[in-house]
Design a protein that fits this description.
The complex is a heterodimer of chains A (119) and B (144).
Chain A (H helix, E strand, L loop, with lengths): L9 H29 L7 H9 L6 H28 L6 H24 L1
Helix pairs in contact in A: 1-3, 3-4
Chain B lengths: L33 H32 L1 H10 L3 H28 L3 E2 L2 E2 L2 H22 L4
Antiparallel strand pairs in B: 1-2
Helix pairs in contact in B: 1-2, 1-3, 3-4
Classes of the chains: A mainly alpha (119), B mainly alpha (144).
Chain lengths: 119, 144
């Protein structure tokens, strides 16, 4: 595979990282406050009210796919930074650790989506 | 004609006597200065936010499984362990967002005529987008 010699996958990794970061900064504070604090303590009609609102729309296969992709990008961003932060802790883990951390970012939303479709 | 030519170069065994200074970096170097601590906090925030993403994926699966499952997930959020994660995630997601917004004028330079759009405006646009997303979610869920 001569044409791949000297190539790096960094642009691809960086694009996914950047996309995830952009999504994270604009959405995560809101999602954490709404679904982590407000809904569990009775906001937005609690479990019943939010179920009425979200079931049907968010359970559409295409919407669920888009949500899993978006959450997957944010997770990719977080895993990327977690892996690179290991070097700051003077840990220089072998490649298998990199594969595992990025594997989590790839597989978690995929398994989540599969479970959604299976439900 | 013989004269005192240049002396032949003496070949010495190559034993290096240089002693370069190699600073040792402690594993806790990032606690040393406020700027380092801010950097470390920002990087650590990604771990917490990432854990909350798992929580959200679980929530989406539970939403698909029906009303009882969704109620179970919502109740799970009041579990002390989960609540600790949530409170940490609120702080850490805000750390992540605000530090990024603060950095954006370094990247986004918009020229209007001979001047550049002021840094404050670029930052404000980002806060505006975050607020917009909050407002959209608020009204989509039918208000508190």
């Amino acid at each position: 595979m001569r044409q791949w010699e000297g190539r790096t996958n960094e642009p691809l990794m960086w694009t996914l990282f950047g996309a995830g970061g952009m999504l994270a900064v604009f959405t995560m504070p809101v999602l954490v406050v709404v679904f982590g604090l407000l809904v569990p303590f009775g906001g937005f009609g609690g479990a019943e009210g939010t179920y009425e609102r979200m079931h049907g729309l968010l359970t559409h296969p295409i919407v669920a796919l888009l949500l899993c992709l978006a959450l997957g990008l944010v997770l990719w961003h977080c895993c990327h930074r977690t892996f690179h932060a290991l070097h700051d802790l003077k840990l220089h883990p072998p490649e298998i650790v990199r594969s595992m951390i990025y594997g989590v970012a790839l597989l978690s939303p995929a398994i989540g989506y599969a479970l959604c479709l299976a439900a | 004609m013989t004269g005192p030519g240049p002396k032949p170069i003496e070949v010495v065994p190559s034993v290096s006597h240089r002693r370069p200074f190699r600073p040792t970096i402690k594993r806790t170097w990032f606690l040393a200065r406020p700027a380092y601590r801010a950097y470390a906090l920002r990087e650590f925030s990604s771990v917490i936010v990432g854990l909350f993403v798992f929580d959200l994926i679980a929530g989406l699966v539970c939403l698909h499984r029906g009303q009882d499952s969704w109620r179970w997930w919502v109740d799970l959020q009041t579990n002390p362990i989960n609540l600790t994660l949530t409170v940490l995630a609120v702080v850490m997601s805000l750390v992540h967002s605000t530090t990024w917004f603060k950095a954006t004028p370094k990247i986004i330079r918009i020229r209007r005529g001979v001047h550049y759009v002021a840094d404050g405006w670029v930052v404000a646009q980002h806060y505006l987008l975050l607020a917009l997303f909050g407002v959209v979610v608020y009204f989509w869920l039918g208000g508190l």
